[in-house]
Amino acid sequence: MKKIEISINGNKIEVPSNYTILEAARENGYRIPTLCHDDRLKPSGACRMCVVEVEGARSLVTSCSTPVRAGMVVKTNSDRVVNSRKTTLELLWADHNYDCLTCNKAGNCDLQDLCYEHDIDPLDGPYIKYSSNHVDKTNEFYIFDEDKCILCGKCVRACSELEGVGAITFSGRGHHTHISHPFEKEMLLSDCVSCGTCVSVCPTGALMEKTNAKFRNWDIDKKVKTTCTYCGVGCQLELVVHDNKVVRIDAPADSINKGITCVKGKFGYKFIDRDDRLKMPLIRKKGKLVESSWDEAYDLIASKMTSTLENYGPDSFAALSSARCTNEENYILQKLFRGVIKTNNVDHCARL
Amino acid sequence: MSLVRSHVLICGGTGCTSSGSISIHEKFEECIKKFGLDKEVKVVKTGCFGLCEAGPIVVVYPEGAFYSHVKVEDIERITEEHLYKGRIVKDLLFKQALEGDVIKSVNEVQFYKKQKRVVLKNCGVINPEVIEEYIAFDGYKALGKVVTEMTQQEVVDEIKKSGLRGRGGGGFPTGLKWQFTLDAIGKEKYVACNADEGDPGAFMDRSVLEGDPHSVIEAMAIAGYAIGASKGFIYIRAEYPIAVERLEIALAQAKELGVIGDNIFSTDFSFDLEIRLGAGAFVCGEETALIESIEGRRGMPRPRPPFPANKGIFQMPTLLNNVETYANITQIILNGAEWFRSIGTEKSPGTKVFALGGKINNTGLVEIPMGMTLREVIYDIGGGIPNGKAFKAVQTGGPSGGCLTYKHLDEQITYDNLVRLGSMMGSGGMIVLDEDNCMVDVARFFLDFTVDESCGKCTPCREGTKRMLELLNKICDGKGEIEDIARLENLAVNIKDSSLCGLGQTAPNPVLSTIKNFRHEYISHIEDKKCEAGVCKALLKVTITDKCIGCTACTKVCPVDCISGSRKEMHVIDQNLCIKCGACIEKCPVNAIILK
Amino acid sequence: MKSLDELAKIREKALKKVSTRNSDKKVRIVVGMATCGISAGARPVLNALVEEVNKRELVDVEVTQTGCIGICRLEPIFEVYQNGEKVTYVNMTAEKAREVVANHIVNGNVVSKYTIGAYEK
What we know:
Shape of chain C: elongated
Distance between the termini of chain B: 70 Å
CATH class of chain C: Alpha Beta
Oligomer: heterotrimer
Structural class of chain C: alpha+beta
Number of domains of chain B: 5
Radius of gyration of chain C: 16 Å
Largest sheet of chain B: 5 strands, mixed
Strand order of the largest sheet of chain C: 2-1-3-4
Distance between the termini of chain C: 60 Å
Number of strands of chain B: 19
CATH class of the largest domain in chain B: Alpha Beta
Helix content of chain B: 25-40%
CATH architecture of chain C: 3-Layer(aba) Sandwich
Radius of gyration of chain B: 27 Å
Largest sheet of chain C: 4 strands, mixed
Strand order of the largest sheet of chain B: 12-11-15-13-14
CATH topology of the largest domain in chain B: Rossmann fold
Order of helices and strands of chain C: HEHHEEEHH
CATH topology of chain C: Glutaredoxin
Shape of chain B: globular
């Protein structure tokens, strides 16, 4: 791509000509705050946080949607820009639920961070507080709290642009605008497949996982990057660990699955701590399953397989592997059966 | 052989239709039959004459006799006296059509005399439902000329030379827009017409579509030829049923006659038009929201760039102009760019249609050459302020515009001048305010509208206008603080600077311009808790003056029992209890109780 | 629509039908149509004038009515206004009216024998 020269905050930089101002700024170390922007989504220009001053433009422009132009002179932090961002934040904050103390999103909330960064006084607003008191809890895995929604529209766009589902939309006009499902019905009755992508992209606590885990985002021990075990796609997930327990699944946007999950990957992790989860091998003894050691179990399997092979031949074996295994595991399994046991009776569910 | 010697033109615009022109039409047909004149007199339903205040309007040709406020009972007399006996019924004429004993024809009436009708030239003259009448007045001649004699670039150049600017409000040079769309690359291109007129009190586009729908259809075909589009969309609000109907009839006739369709005038040029109905969201008048709506989505603006000229309807290059802009096109093609430039001013050539409303005698639609002063429009054409009240302000540009004062009366009406004065041309609303209007309340009225009509997409417009309205309500309720003015100004500046589309970027204008020109009214609301114009109810007090005769009628009618006083003595209202319902004012036999 | 000629033909035909809607024409023929005029036979005169004007496609001629002109004994009467001058024709019939259109309006020769001047002598 051809490179062109633009100026940001008085410094000349060279950037590819198909960049937006935001891309150009970020790549060169200029921070521009955003709320509704997501690299994976088409720019929407809704939140107006990323406005910058462009010489010659009548009003401020959104850096997320405006392409660079040769010779463009951009200011990302002039008084005019900062004042505009502060006003925007004050307006969003004035219409937000003030419950950061108890909100699970605290510490991981873009709105909270930006309000902190811009010195928004949480109590000094002349405005009336409106509450819809509308919290939709009908979905099994997540809740939607309208009073925390800043209408950035990321969930709506992710649902339709990333997932191709289109279960959510805007409804109402002006100050009555809200996120809604078809015919203003509850979430459960929509086309929602509970993939949780909307939850992953929500910058505030409006869409949040249902959880009983008590943890603050700043107390998280670690995030473990892993491959989802449910199917063979290989989605990358981050297990959020607190107190040696998985308390949430995040989906990093820079991974192979671009942060998109399915219901299982995003929400199907609670089995990890279930008491009835199988942790040791069980051997049926006198009609009853009895816990055994791994060595005992392996010995039993090996002896049974050897004797069966001797008595009945290789074709008495069949192997059924699982899509939940990795490619490598599946490869080893078929190698074992073809190379060691010498049968081609190998299949795979591939239907999970 | 035709014996028709007289045409009775009856206004069929929305204004006159709602004041009963349909039954007038029927009655005329009936009376004309009764007098045996049905072969000699033709009754024609036309579009708007512009003087809606005087409706229903009937004009009888060849005399051009201008009857106003016509009632069904008058028709028999008009038929007998005028059509049968040839005596114009003077007492039924529009009052300005009669000077002493001299009858003035419709074109000589002061209201029309100062106007220059380019866009509205056929309105009130032709029957919009008969394509032949349009053709009689040079209809489709421009399209014929363009497709058979001119290249695409020549058409665009002619529009560029004319200096025509977008009549929807922005005033962007139309020719430039055409050039951008001609130059844009796309496997398909579209022409679109913005007929989603939504400013409160504005009805210019409605009247053009009701009175002369073919002028827009023809212009769109010309535009299609010029930019290389074979498909067009007219986006019109469903709340304009008469305009929609006439447009549908006109389009069907144009297709029937082959001026819209394949191989127009035996050339390679084919053009098809489709009517799309809007559901009445004001924001759908914003071009990108309109495009979203045409595509079948929720009408919310898109960020620009990309501009519609490059990526419009279905991501294809799209030329989008408003009704009035299109209505100028055929005239420019037929009479030339030079002719067009001879009207109006250098930077704002041509005419502009205004919907004149508010405190003015001649409410209605006027078309004036640009450069005319506000005074000429308000006093000469509009007939001044009724009831001897004093002029206070004129609001132009609808909810996006501002209020101008008597200081500005001698300023010229041009795009740049109105912006310089802190208002804007807008689509053409012009609301006159008198001493009885409270400017804080006027600002509140317009803001209330934009708050309702904001699409809710971007933060400053959705949240900011709502908060501004809150502050204005607070001031009108007598709870304002002096800091609120600065708060309003700060919000206004930032909403203007950072909103996504024109709706938000202009929504604070009525507030800013009233603060600028009528700051003292804000201050008196806040500090003195007074509304001089007597509009803001919370700031008014019901008081009993010494005219009171002590009849006790008020005490009996007061629903909260806050009036006390003995018989034959002056009564007193307890201001703490009074709910200002006004019942006592109505009841008082000597008008001793006032609201001030 | 095939050609500009086709459009011009439609226009020509349509123009005749709407030319009435022009209140500043060069020639005005005003027929006295008060009770006196009508009873003396002004209606056939009026109709003949309209028909003749239409037939000859005289788009710049307006035929209109007025009330009593004041000399009821000479009805039917009509007046021709042209270039600020007025010619009054009296005791008209449909035939005479056609003659006036042909000679006066079309050819510019006032038909003196029918004018009020000739009659009064």
